[in-house]
Amino acid sequence: MKDDLPSLDEIRNVMQDIAKENGILEQVDENWDHSTCVWKFADKIAKLAIKNGHEVDLNFLKVACYVHDIGRMKTGSKSLKELEPVRYHGLRGYEIVKKQGWLEKLARVCVRHMGGAGQTKDVNKEIGLGNKDTLAETIEERILAYADCRAFFDEKLGRAKIEPFEKAYNKFKIYPGAGGLLKKNQEFIKKITANKIS
């Protein structure tokens, strides 16, 4: 296992190789745009948290933002071409990161970002992802999960943008317990940013 973090170029190259192998090379650009949007919002949250006395590893958070959806290079996505149900992209991402020999904590963000707060074992069981919780736990995981759930593709702009919390909540509340977890994570984000992010 490598002790250092991969560079963004290394991450993008791995994405391109996997996406090309699966015939979905266009997925790389869509994913990169989304991840850039997530990173910009996560960075804003993290810097406010740091200002309020919380420790956040900004370097790890940035790399995690660009890795979290790497599993989409295998599953595809509904907006382009879905090769496998998109709900599996977290698990596929975990597998990819482990295969690359990257850090375990980087692999974990792939499964712990789902639904804006991670997922309970009940949800994971229901969608065929095992019998254990994959909840966001560290401050970096929680910031990433929250930033990710707020990033949506805007057809008019042709790129991802941050949308209001209500849109994210309405998307994820259909899963058992997900709405409550997402609201709990929103309260955490409000707390660490002194209510400057909602």
Please explain how this structure is put together.
With 198 residues, the chain is mainly α. The chain has a single domain (8-192), classed as Hypothetical protein af1432, CATH 1.10.3210. Helices cover 58% and strands 6% of the residues. It has ten helices and four strands; from the N terminus they run ααααααβαβαββαα. The strands form two sheets. The chain has a two-stranded antiparallel sheet with strand order 1-2. α9 runs antiparallel to α10 (178-192). The protein starts with 7 loop residues before the first helix and ends in a 6-residue tail after the last helix.
Q: Please summarize the sheet with the most strands.
A: 2 strands, antiparallel
Question: What is the first-to-last residue Cα distance?
Answer: 37 Å
* Number of DSSP strand runs: 4
Helix fraction? 55-70%
CATH topology: Hypothetical protein af1432
Shape descriptor reads globular
Q: Which structural class do you get from the secondary structure elements?
A: mainly alpha
Radius of gyration: 16 Å
CATH-defined architecture: Orthogonal Bundle
